[in-house]
């Protein structure tokens, strides 16, 4: 398709160029220069396209037809360029009009920035040459120059009125540049000396004999047939792609419709979510109020339960205290009765103690009397022993004396036993009385408390 467009454009612009050459204005020197530059541009562009198609790969900076193309383009852009004054003298600069493309097309700003950042470029001419090479690599050279030639007011500041860029030849050359979009170029601008290159057109590349023309025409016909076959294949592929594109467009339309429906449903869902959030907030508020009231009621119920439990506990404590009081009263009554019994027993014990003391005193008196009698008997016995000194009488007296002595010992022993029993009984009675008194005092004190 691109090759067909290129050939159509070449034929179209060739017819226009012939029409331009047939005009009477060719007698003007500037018009002749424009015609010559147009013919050279045609030959250069045509040769570059044919050689690039036969070459079959990406072009680089050392490719001769590509170098000649840049030389021809440089001459075309320099034609009719105004001379501008500067501190160093008068000069002609291509960089001025090419730099204005950045203002007409923002996409060209990247190329202009890249050209300004190149470290090896020092002259405006070197920057212009670098700009042409970068625009060709981007396949935007025809588009940028077409924008430039449409602004006559801007070009008039840089070119004379009869310059190529301001006349119809410039439009023809820009149209021919569209065919260069079929080739791929990989040009190394960095490191290349673009400031000092001398742009000389090599006409030997365009002067050919008849034999070469016949051979080239046959070769060109073969290339054209191959290109036509490729064109048919590309057209068939294009029809398939168009059907695929139409199917995809139908899917895109259906997806857009479904997307619009989904957007509407999403908006409805968002509104429902907002409403549900508001209802949720309202329900949470009501829930918090209900929860607060429930907590208050629960606190009241808990206080009532606590009061009931405390009252029940107090009743139980009261009943327990009342039962203990009854038990203590009964115990007190029992203690008082026992105290009465103890008091009576104490009185009896005191009476017994007195009787025992009286008996002891009587026995002691009897013992004293017996001792006196013993002494008297001893004295009598002595007297009798001295007087009588008879054995039998002495034996009897001794036997009587022994009996009295044994009787006295028995009385003393019984007296001692009775005295110890009396003392033990008195001590036990005293201890029992003191213990009962303390216990009765504690009971009376607890009951009164």
UniProtKB/TrEMBL annotation:
GO cellular component: cytoplasm
Residues in the signal sequence: 1-25
Family annotation (Gene3D superfamilies): 1.20.5.170, 1.20.58.900
InterPro entries for this protein: RUFY1-3, Run_dom, Run_dom_sf, RUN_RUFY2
Top-level taxon: Eukaryota
Annotated ranges, domain RUN: 60-192
KW Signal (keyword) present: yes
SMART domains according to UniProt: RUN (SM00593)
Coiled-coil spans in chain: 238-366
PANTHER family, alphabetized: RUN AND FYVE DOMAIN-CONTAINING PROTEIN 2, RUN AND FYVE DOMAIN-CONTAINING PROTEIN 2-LIKE PROTEIN
Protein name: RUN and FYVE domain containing 2
């Amino acid at each position: 398709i691109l090759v067909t467009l290129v050939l159509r454009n070449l034929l179209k612009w060739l017819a226009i160029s012939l029409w331009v050459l047939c005009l009477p204005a060719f007698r003007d020197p500037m018009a002749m220069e424009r015609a010559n530059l147009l013919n050279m541009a045609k030959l250069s562009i045509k040769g570059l396209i044919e050689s690039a198609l036969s070459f079959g790969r990406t072009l680089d900076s050392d490719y001769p037809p590509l170098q000649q193309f840049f030389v021809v383009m440089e001459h075309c852009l320099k034609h009719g360029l105004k001379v501008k004054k500067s501190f160093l003298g008068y000069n002609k600069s291509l960089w001025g009009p090419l730099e204005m493309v950045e203002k007409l097309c923002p996409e060209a700003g990247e190329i202009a920035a890249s050209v300004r950042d190149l470290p090896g470029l020092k002259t405006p001419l070197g920057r212009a040459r670098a700009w042409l090479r970068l625009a060709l690599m981007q396949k935007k050279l025809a588009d940028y120059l077409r924008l430039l030639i449409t602004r006559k007011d801007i070009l008039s500041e840089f070119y004379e009125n009869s310059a190529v860029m301001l006349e119809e030849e410039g439009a023809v050359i820009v149209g021919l540049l569209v065919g260069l979009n079929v080739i791929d170029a990989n040009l190394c601008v960095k490191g290349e000396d673009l400031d000092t290159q001398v742009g000389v057109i090599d006409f030997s590349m365009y002067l050919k004999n008849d034999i070469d023309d016949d051979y080239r025409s046959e070769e060109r016909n073969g290339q054209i047939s191959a290109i036509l076959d490729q064109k048919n294949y590309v057209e068939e592929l294009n029809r398939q792609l168009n059907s695929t594109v139409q199917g995809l467009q139908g899917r895109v339309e259906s997806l857009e419709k479904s997307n619009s429906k989904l957007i509407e449903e999403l908006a409805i869902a968002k509104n429902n979510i907002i409403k549900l959030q508001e209802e949720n907030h309202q329900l949470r508020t009501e829930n918090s109020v209900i929860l607060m009231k429930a907590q208050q009621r629960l606190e009241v119920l808990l206080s009532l339960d606590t009061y009931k439990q405390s009252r029940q506990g107090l009743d139980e404590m009261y009943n327990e205290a009342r039962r203990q009081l009854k038990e203590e009263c009964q115990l007190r009554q029992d203690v008082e009765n026992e105290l009465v019994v103890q008091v009576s027993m104490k009185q009896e014990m005191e009476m017994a103690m007195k009787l025992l003391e009286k008996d002891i005193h009587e026995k002691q008196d009897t013992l004293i009397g017996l001792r006196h009698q013993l002494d008297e008997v001893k004295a009598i016995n002595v007297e009798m022993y001295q007087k009588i000194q008879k054995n039998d009488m002495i034996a009897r007296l001794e036997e009587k004396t022994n009996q009295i002595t044994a009787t006295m010992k028995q009385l003393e022993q019984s007296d001692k036993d009775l005295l110890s029993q009396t003392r033990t009984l008195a001590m036990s009675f005293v201890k029992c009385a003191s213990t009962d008194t303390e216990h009765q005092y504690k009971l009376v004190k607890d009951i009164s408390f």
